């Protein structure tokens, strides 16, 4: 790491209001409860401002509400978490790898690898691949033939990209992720399954990050498309011909079935499942564990999780979940009977 | 690609009724809305026949209901989707790889690799492995000792097959899939877990396809068995000692717990979860997100998903899900009170 | 295998009461229904003792209730499953691999690899890595720089450990598992996501086993911690800054969101989902498919699964799940009306 900055250098670069600066240098970020004299910590929400009292942090990033609650050196900003992200990126730069191709990598002679790219040990790169400037391809990753990737991409170890997929600039792929595997396309012939060749591609825009173990199938005929700025957590499944709109974030263990179109700026909780062939509007939020079975045409938050209970209580309630129609029928019957009684009463 | 066929050649090979043939050659398949003069498109269901009007496709595959709705060259068949699958396979043959073992692959001298097989860069093959004719083993895949695989298998990059597993002919394994990992077998000794050695195998039949990131554990004592023609999507977990019957298809993110026996010709939706030690009959369909907790002895479709709502509406309903037993009690009480009132009325 | 023991040797080693010993040697374990004369089988629960009648097993491990139901050689013990685990481990020792580094492995000159460790073909080990005594690192696995692992670890093929993670002794990692990938840490700037560098580590204790395809993210600032004896099945997602208490076992397809603290000796069923920033007490059991949205402060079993139905029945009930609040309102209204009627009756 070894980078260190004064607070005034940080404010010159990222803005914000600097108070009670003592000229000290900051060399790292840390949680407020264990930050030391050379570290900066942050409080993102007013309700956590009480943590400021006990901190030993050399400096703080605080929201406006915290402007006057301490005499420690501090930067006041409307979005402390974002400010912290910027400082942390500055103080924790990605390790600089030497450009070049490791001798144990197997790169097809017809691949074009930028001279500034770093290709690690054990990487296998197929015919016709293009790798842009300053890309880092981690150990034992595999790029199938004719894969094209832009500049400044970072692929960690053991990543797989199938043939002909196209990735933009600054794409991050975590280990175990698989881009461009065949979609689940099957025709049925008297009970037996016949495979449909998956001849589309997976096309990924700029600034996309794909988590560990996440799989994104290629399209059947058209492409699967992940637009710019999309962030995918671990162990997510994206089926063939899905389109995910720009700047949408999806938490781990989520599955999106074939040909679903997800809007821009959506936030999808963990383990959500989205049926195929539907459309979800921009700025939709889907709660964790929610199953979406129909198109969503307007922004909002959508949920379908069953609340948990202590097991015995759950057992007592669960029996009725399978009998709701009968319960509703009994209520209707009661309404009829009571109306009759009320009628007789009046008559 | 480069393959091209006349429609009469296609009909000679695959059957169907050819109408208004103009002798043109077809070199690819495409979606009906963007197919061009040298491409063939299909309509599988009558409700989509309206798309035929605007198409520029050189030829069409149509169901019987669409026989007379266009003058374009067309093939009439009872199963257009299957017909399309056959044409697409013909026009998109798997790339032919040169047979042989890449110099960077590490193949144990006691392994038997067919001379027609293609072993890619970085592959590691253990002692006693047998690889059949025309198999393709993708870059950086690993076959543990004594693995036996049949003919014409296609393993993509970064696949792992543990020791002693047996795979049939024409098996496709996608990247990141893991075959034969240890089942989750643990005995408990005063709170601590003691591992049960998993000494069974994973045995996979002919024509099975396994999706990216899918894991199939080996058996504890007996084998885990995937029968012929089974199709598994991505990120599926198959636990130890499971048996999946022939020609069953399972969508992504599904989990099947230990020793479950799944029938033949079943269709299991995405993110379904199936408890262990139960049996599911042939031809059962299980909906997406459904939890199966008991054996299913007859065909049918089974479901357990909670419908989603807008979040505020969900909140108002969710509180009652934990109180259904009380609601049911109140209904019962009402029934008793109203019966009493009715009785008094009559008396 | 080749190991064989007399029953008296087993009892001398593991305890238990030996009855009707005939001096025969046992060379393997098998299920009771197919065990042969040189194999030992077990019955763990009294309800399965009826299987003893038909067995051909050379010896049996039985619970106390089965002491006198057969004349076959048998060992009586209070925990037959644990006893079986011990015998199986003895008779199925892990294969002994020759120590040393395969010539195709790429090990940084500044890594320290114990002379007794076995580094397989295609492994890539970064600068500053420490690998302990008798460790086995499987083919094509990758250890990032400064990873430290203890003694007697077993990493199967295609495992990835990111830089600076620390693992204890006897840790088992299955293929496709990813340790130390970046957590899903994002700040939002006017709709666009800004990555938070993930500078913590993943720290794994002694005797932990991690299933195939399971991903454990590194911490954002602090570490993600998996305490000793934790057992993780396949395709589990552990987010950043999670802590899992010692000897907790988690079944496949489960997801645990960021900063959740799971207690010791917990058992978590398959496909459970646990929200972030909550605490779960020691000895909690969570049922399969259950979503935990709040802290659990005391031991017990917790459940939230919706029971499945035949699809038509499910449809009839599901419509009411979205109308529970209205149903509850109708019950309340009925209670009011009937109270009025009852009041009039009395008056």
Structural descriptors:
eleven-stranded parallel β-sheet; 347 residues; 16% helix; Udp-n-acetylmuramoylalanyl-d-glutamate--2,6- Diaminopimelate Ligase, Chain: A, domain 1; 40 strands; UDP N-Acetylglucosamine Acyltransferase, domain 1; alpha/beta; ten-stranded parallel β-sheet
Would you give an account of this structure?
The structure is a homotrimer of 347-residue chains. With 347 residues, chain A is of the alpha/beta class. Chain A folds into 3 domains: 5-91, Udp-n-acetylmuramoylalanyl-d-glutamate--2,6- Diaminopimelate Ligase, Chain: A, domain 1, CATH 3.40.1390; 159-302, UDP N-Acetylglucosamine Acyltransferase, domain 1, CATH 2.160.10.10; 311-346. Chain A is 16% helix and 28% strand. In chain A, the strands form 6 sheets. The first copy, chain A, has an 11-stranded parallel beta sheet, with no helix packed on it. In chain A, strands 9-12-15-18-21-26-29-32-35-38 form a 10-stranded parallel beta sheet, with no helix packed on it. A 9-stranded parallel beta sheet of chain A has the order 10-13-16-19-24-27-30-33-36, with no helix packed on it. In chain A, strand 22 and strand 23 form a beta hairpin. Chain A is flat, with a radius of gyration of 27 Å. Strand 39 (300-303) of chain B pairs antiparallel with strand 40 (309-310) of chain C, so a sheet runs across the interface.
Measured by residues with Cβ under 8 Å of the partner chain's Cβ, the largest interface is: A-B, 74 and 73 residues
**Can you count the beta strands of chain A?**
40
* Structural Rg of chain A: 27 Å
Number of helices of chain A: 4
CATH top level of the largest domain in chain A?
Mainly Beta
Oligomer: homotrimer
Task: Give the CATH H-level superfamily of the largest domain in chain A.
Answer: Hexapeptide repeat proteins
Globally, the shape of chain A reads: flat
Question: What are the low-pLDDT stretches of chain A, counting only 5+ consecutive residues below 50?
Answer: none
The CATH architecture classification of the largest domain in chain A is 3 Solenoid
Beta strand % of chain A: 25-35%
Distance between the termini of chain A: 89 Å
User: What proportion of the residues of chain A is helical, as a percent range?
Assistant: 10-25%
Query: How many domains make up the 3D coordinates of chain A?
Result: 3
Strand order of the largest sheet of chain A: 8-11-14-17-20-25-28-31-34-37-39
Helix/strand/pairing class of chain A, anyone? alpha/beta
CATH topology of the largest domain in chain A: UDP N-Acetylglucosamine Acyltransferase, domain 1
For the largest beta-sheet of chain A, the strand count, sense and barrel status come to: 11 strands, parallel
- Return the average pLDDT of chain A rounded to an integer: 96
